Amino acid sequence: EAEVAQSPRYKITEKSQAVAFWCDPISGHATLYWYRQILGQGPELLVQFQDESVVDDSQLPKDRFSAERLKGVDSTLKIQPAELGDSAMYLCASSLYGSDTQYFGPGTRLTVL
Amino acid sequence: QKEVEQDPGPLSVPEGAIVSLNCTYSNSAFQYFMWYRQYSRKGPELLMYTYSSGNKEDGRFTAQVDKSSKYISLFIRDSQPSDSATYLCAMSATGANSKLTFGKGITLSVRP
Q1: Residue A31 and residue A97: Cα distance in Å, rounded?
Q2: Could you read off the pLDDT of B55-108 as tens digits, one per residue?
Q3: Rounded to an integer, what distance in angstroms lies between the CA atom of residue A84 and that of residue A9?
Q4: A-to-B residue pairs, Cβ atoms closer than 8 angstroms
């Protein structure tokens, strides 16, 4: 069964350092989402791509966060510099174009010290 | 006030119990309603999806939507220890390829 892949699964960093997360969606899924899930909360959308184009990045803290999906397949989310409040689970999801079903990856758990 | 409110937890029930999980929402634009299950240290997986008001059943799970009251529920019959997980309600306004707004989740523990 096809799955969304994410790496690394866990990342510990010190504040002010740069971190990057990678996501490989299910093959053929044109829409890719990055969500942030703070412990004890539901996921919140950070950015949505349709192919290589950003559809919604209204909740992305653009002063420190960036996301790209250069060839419309895999995607990278970067934080620079990391802050203590960035500690959370970063989830990637994908869906077929025209579908309302999003498939989530296992997430990257970030701890900022 | 958050757009989606979910009953606080955690919830602990004995095996075989009927479980009722609930969410309310304030945004009348929400038309699509989902329940996700999230095991510890895993990503959410879609459990149930509904569009219209009414009930939808899938095995031991029943999703209920009342748009007039802006209230959705998930019922689990004959609960099993393997149902122990966090359950998240999620909603969207436009369906296909649209942003999901999640509740904060409730952690369910089913005791053997």
Answers
A1: 6
A2: 999 999 999 999 999 999 999 999 999 999 999 999 998 867 788 999 999 999
A3: 19
A4: 61
